[in-house]
Design brief:
- The protein has 86 residues and is of the alpha+beta class.
- The protein is 43% helix and 16% strand.
- It has a three-stranded antiparallel β-sheet.
- The relative contact order is 0.25.
């Protein structure tokens, strides 16, 4: 289950973000995978570890204190829109 959650988070994030940052609520993951995040700290830690181990070329950083907040390398985000500074 950890692998499936991690794959879902990364694939959904990189294919949805236009900025390189993507938030996914714990409730969305709980509904889709039958988990109890963030209460199940063991699963939460394993998902984080899996993502950092398996996707070091895609995920720059991740914060799971309030939801899944992932920051991706923009070169792997097909919908990334570069902001032009004035």
């Amino acid at each position: 289950m950890v692998k499936k959650i991690a794959e879902y988070l990364v694939e959904t994030g990189i294919n949805s973000t236009t900025t390189g940052n993507w938030h996914i609520d714990f409730d969305e993951i709980n509904a889709k995978f039958g988990t109890t995040l963030p209460a199940d700290n063991d699963v939460l830690e394993k998902v984080q570890d899996y993502i950092f181990t398996e996707y070091p070329d895609k995920v720059v950083d991740m914060d799971c204190s309030e939801d899944f907040d992932l920051i991706f390398y923009t070169d792997c985000c097909p919908n990334y829109i570069e902001e032009n500074e004035p």
